[in-house]
Design a protein that fits this description.
About 45% of the residues lie in helices and about 15% in strands. It is of the alpha/beta class. It has helices at about 15-25, 45-50, 70-80, 95-110, 135-145, 175-185, 215-220, 220-230, 260-265, 270, 275-310; strands at about 1-5, 35-40, 55, 85-90, 90-95, 115, 120, 145-150, 155-160, 190-195, 200-205, 245-250, 250-255. The longest helix has about 35 residues, at about 275-310. It has two domains: about 1-255, Spore Coat Polysaccharide Biosynthesis Protein SpsA, Chain A (Alpha-Beta Complex); about 275-310. The protein is built from eleven helices and 13 strands.
C-alpha cells in the first residue's frame, strides 16, 4: 500500500535505459503500489502510458526549469491513494526486500521516515523483468561490482502522509534538499529509520550531462547555493547517520550504538540547543580521554626507546 512518485529526466540515450529499469522495478513490487510521474520531459507521457501509471504534467518550477520539491510533495500527498508515500529518484532500482522493509516498519510505527544508503552500480542494459531470476541476477551484480554510497546521498524517502508541514521551494536534484528532509523529520520528533541493512537499493551510475555545467553545476551552482540558503545553512543538512532507528534482519531497534550516540551529541546545537551545556561537557570528557590515550601511547613509545638504549 505504497504510492511512489518521482520526476524523470528526458527519456533519451543512456538515461532512458536507466529510468525504464528503475520505474519498472517499482511497478514490480505488486498491485499494492502505485506510481506517479511528475513533469513534461520528453518521453514521460509515453512511458507512463506504456506502463499504465499516473502522469501529472503540471509541476511548479524555478526560473531555470527545475521542478520544486514543495509542489511535488504537496500534490503527491493530496492525490496518492495510499497512506504511505515514497519519493524516489528516477535512477533507483528497488527489489522485493524494499516492500518487506516498509511493511515491517509500518506494522510497528504509525508515523515515520525511512531512508537508507544506496549501492552504486554500472548498468547499461534494459533489465528483462520477465525472467524469473532477474532479481537474483541484479543482486549478483551488486555483490560483484557494486559500491555502497556514503551516508550523505539520500535517494528515497518513505513517509506517512501529512508528515512535513510546509516545505521550502527547494530544487530537486540539487544539493542539500534531501539532507534537509531528514533534519525536518528530526525537528518534528518523527522516527527516522535507516533501512540500509535490509533493503538493497541500487543506483544506476550516470553522467551529469542533463545540467549545462555538469556535476559542478548540480552540486555547486546557483540552484544548489539557493537550496542551502533556503534550509538555513549547511548545519541543517543531515545525513543517514542521523537516523533514530535501524532496521536489521532481527527487526527494528533504536540507533543507540556508540557511533550513533556520538553523532547525536554533535547534533545537539541544531536539535536541542537547551542541552548545549551537557554536550559541551561530553565533548570535554572526550577530549580529555583522547589526550590521555595519546599520552599513554607516547609513554609506551618512550619506554620502548629507553629499553633499547639501555640494552644497547
Amino acid at each position: 500500500m505504497l504510492t511512489f512518485f518521482s520526476t524523470p529526466k528526458r527519456f533519451s540515450g543512456p538515461i532512458e535505459v536507466i529510468q525504464r529499469n528503475a520505474i519498472r522495478s517499482w511497478h514490480q513490487l505488486g498491485s499494492g503500489c502505485e506510481v506517479i510521474l511528475f513533469g513534461d520531459e520528453d518521453g514521460t507521457a509515453e512511458v507512463a502510458a506504456e506502463f499504465g501509471i499516473r502522469h501529472v504534467i503540471e509541476v511548479s518550477r524555478n526560473e531555470y526549469g527545475t521542478p520544486l520539491i514543495s509542489d511535488m510533495f504537496d500534490k503527491a500527498q493530496g492525490m496518492g491513494n495510499y497512506p504511505i508515500l515514497c519519493y524516489i529518484n528516477a535512477d533507483i532500482i528497488l527489489l522485493s526486500d524494499f516492500g518487506r522493509a516498509v511493511q515491517t516498519i509500518s506494522q510497528e510505527m504509525s508515523r515515520f521516515l525511512i531512508v537508507g544508503q544506496r549501492w552504486d552500480l554500472d548498468l547499461r542494459e534494459l533489465i528483462d523483468f520477465s525472467k524469473i531470476n532477474w532479481e537474483q541476477d541484479i543482486r549478483t551484480m551488486v555483490s560483484k561490482r557494486g559500491k555502497l554510497h556514503d551516508i550523505q546521498g539520500i535517494d528515497y524517502f518513505v513517509f506517512t502522509n501529512s508528515l512535513w508541514g510546509e516545505i521550502p521551494p527547494l530544487s530537486v536534484g540539487r544539493a542539500a534538499w534531501d539532507n534537509w528532509m531528514i533534519y525536518r523529520a528530526r525537528t518534528l520528533r518523527v522516527p527516522v529509520i535507516d533501512a540500509t541493512q535490509v533493503a538493497t537499493v541500487i543506483h544506476q551510475n550516470h553522467d551529469y550531462s542533463h545540467h549545462v555545467k555538469g556535476r559542478k553545476g548540480v552540486y555547486r551552482g546557483i540552484e544548489a547555493r539557493r537550496n542551502v540558503d533556503l534550509i538555513g545553512g549547511i548545519y541543517h543538512a543531515f545525513n543517514i547517520r542521523d537516523a533514530t532507528h535501524l532496521l536489521t534482519s532481527k527487526g527494528l531497534k533504536p540507533a543507540t550504538d556508540i557511533k550513533h550516540l556520538r553523532w547525536r551529541v554533535e547534533r545537539i546545537p541544531e536539535l536541542s540547543p537547551q542541552l548545549m551545556p551537557i554536550a559541551q561537557l561530553i565533548k570535554a570528557v572526550q577530549v580529555v580521554r583522547t589526550s590521555i590515550l595519546k599520552l599513554g601511547v607516547k609513554l609506551k613509545d618512550l619506554v620502548i626507546i629507553l629499553k633499547e638504549r639501555i640494552f644497547i
